[in-house]
Amino acid sequence: MAEIRQLRDKQPENEKITINLGFVDLGRIDLLVQEGFYSNRSDFIRTAIRKQLDTHGEAVDRSIERHTMELGLRDFSRAELEQHRAAGEVLHIKVVGLARIGSDVTPDLALATIGSITVLGSLQASADIKKALADRIQ
């Protein structure tokens, strides 16, 4: 048992949000759950959000293209950032979704290679990286 070791930290696959709803709306959602239309409140809310996102899908796509943003999951590894530093390049990160900066990236490397970060979704990075880049995170 002494040889058990953690292989890697589990990264969350989603982000928890909090919303405020009126009692009537909440009651209507609970009624739909009770009637079997949805498995729980979260299922209803996720479904409603996805339907709205589908409704505005073209507008979102045009906006992503206009702002030259990447969609989905984007990892920034130490090796990639070192390549950019060696080439004298500064990144302006724009992601819709999840942006992750590797746990082995140092604050100095991040400062040398990242000019700005805009993430619509979630940014996962160490506390040291977030502190070092605080004035560059929009």
UniProtKB/TrEMBL annotation:
InterPro entries: Arc_rbn_hlx_hlx, RHH_8, Ribbon_hlx_hlx
Single biological process term from Gene Ontology: regulation of DNA-templated transcription
Pfam family, one: RHH_8
Protein name (database record): Nickel-responsive regulator
